[in-house]
């Protein structure tokens, strides 16, 4: 994604202060009962979770694809955060610790993908593995969404009739093929290592319009606004305004997933007018907001 302009139009109507959102926490649901293997290379889980629920940080020795058939997810890993609306999915390589937060009520569909020794990806040749060794936001085609919905979600220990096992094998093969052909989308936001800056960035990700100025966001971090601005340049090679703009773009994608019109998305993100929001999107990504958000 092209780097945003250094002089973006800031939101004009964001509220000065609002109480922070409070999360409730749950554990990862029995992953040991859904282990993928050569015979069953794709395993599926389903879990309905309320908004502001976070699945605590965890990792798996296999790859994972997180999909929400309804609602919006936010997945955080060590170096970044990813917004996942229903039109997208997130590929997570083996061994990557991640936390999943429900931005709104969501039907969380999880695919566990078997990874043969020394290989990474949805059954891609060795020469094509490099992109799959990191988290990737992928387009979800109508076919892929339908396939995910149809996958059996019974855990190990439950009887699997031969007809259902055969169906799972066919669905799994199609899912892997759809993943291999899915386009990658830039909906990630880089995160810093500095604890003070990380705290601020996590707060912005949770509620990007809660404050309007860097001085307001810096309160409670133990660092002055000048120090915070310096940390942004050092750790993320970006100004606070540029970084927050990426957050707003990701949030816009989440709002677009609810089929909200551009004028309402602009208002939700605190922009004084749809034209101000459209100008920001055009500067940041080089295309009209309707095309970028899939609303055109």
Task: Characterize the structure shown.
- The protein folds into two domains: 24-185, Jelly Rolls; 207-292, Arc Repressor Mutant, subunit A.
- The protein is α+β, with helices and mostly antiparallel strands and 296 residues long.
- The longest helix is centred in the middle third of the chain and has 20 residues, at 162-181.
- A six-stranded mixed sheet has the order 1-3-8-5-6-12. A six-stranded antiparallel sheet has the order 2-9-4-7-10-11, with helices on one face.
- 33% of the residues lie in helices and 20% in strands.
- Residues 1-16 have low confidence and may be disordered.
- Keywords: DNA-binding, Transcription, Transcription regulation.
- Pfam families: AraC_binding (PF02311), HTH_18 (PF12833).
- InterPro entries: AraC-bd, Homeodomain-like_sf, HTH_AraC, HTH_AraC-typ_CS, RmlC-like_jellyroll, RmlC_Cupin_sf.
- This is AraC-type DNA-binding protein.
According to DSSP, the number of beta strands is 12
Q: Quick one: overall form? A: globular
**Which superfamily, in CATH terms, is the homologous superfamily of the largest domain?**
Regulatory protein AraC
Q: Over all CA atoms, what is the radius of gyration? A: 20 Å
Q: What is the spatial order of strands in the main beta sheet?
A: 1-3-8-5-6-12
CATH fold-level topology of the largest domain: Jelly Rolls
List low-confidence stretches.
1-16
Q: Order of SSEs, N→C? A: EEEEEEEEEEHHEEHHHHHHH
The top level CATH class name of the largest domain: Mainly Beta
Number of helices: 9
The proportion of residues forming helix, as a percent range, comes to 25-40%
Q: Label the structural class.
A: alpha+beta
Oligomeric state as shown: single chain
What is the correct CATH architecture of the largest domain?
Answer: Sandwich
Averaging pLDDT over every residue, what do you get? 87
Distance linking N and C termini: 19 Å
Please give the largest β-sheet: 6 strands, mixed
| Strand-residue proportion | 15-25%
> What's the number of structural domains?
2
